[in-house]
Write a structure and sequence with these properties.
It is a single chain. The protein is mostly helical and 96 residues long. The chain has a domain of 67 residues. Helix content is 72%, strand content 0%. It has 3 helices and no strands. The longest helix is centred in the middle third of the chain and has 41 residues. It is elongated.
Length: 96
C-alpha cells in the first residue's frame, strides 16, 4: 500500500505544457517584432507613410475650407432672413 501512495518528485528539468507554451509565445513575439522592424525600415513603408501624411494634410486643408464655406453660406442665410419682413408683422402701408 505504501508503494502506491508514494509519488516521485518531478525534476526541474521536465517542463510542463505551460512553460513550453510560454517559450513558444516569446519566440513568436520576438519573430513578429523583428519582422515589424524590417517592414518599417523598408522603402515601400516609407513611401506609403509619406503619402498618408500628405493625404492627412490635404484632408485638413479641405476641412478648413469647407467649414469656411459653410460659415459663409450660413452668414448669407442669416442676412437674408433678417432683411425680409417677418410674416407676423404687417407691412407698413405707405398710403395711410
Amino acid at each position: 500500500m505504501e508503494e502506491e501512495t508514494k509519488k516521485e518528485p518531478v525534476g526541474p528539468e521536465e517542463e510542463g505544457w505551460a512553460e513550453k507554451a510560454k517559450k513558444l509565445i516569446d519566440e513568436a513575439d520576438d519573430f513578429i517584432d523583428e519582422k515589424v522592424d524590417k517592414v518599417k525600415k523598408s522603402k515601400a513603408f516609407g513611401e506609403i507613410k509619406d503619402s498618408l501624411d500628405k493625404a492627412e494634410e490635404f484632408g485638413k486643408k479641405v476641412a478648413v475650407k469647407a467649414a469656411d464655406k459653410l460659415e459663409d453660406l450660413a452668414e448669407g442665410i442669416r442676412k437674408k432672413t433678417q432683411d425680409e419682413p417677418k410674416p407676423e408683422e404687417p407691412n407698413p402701408d405707405p398710403q395711410k
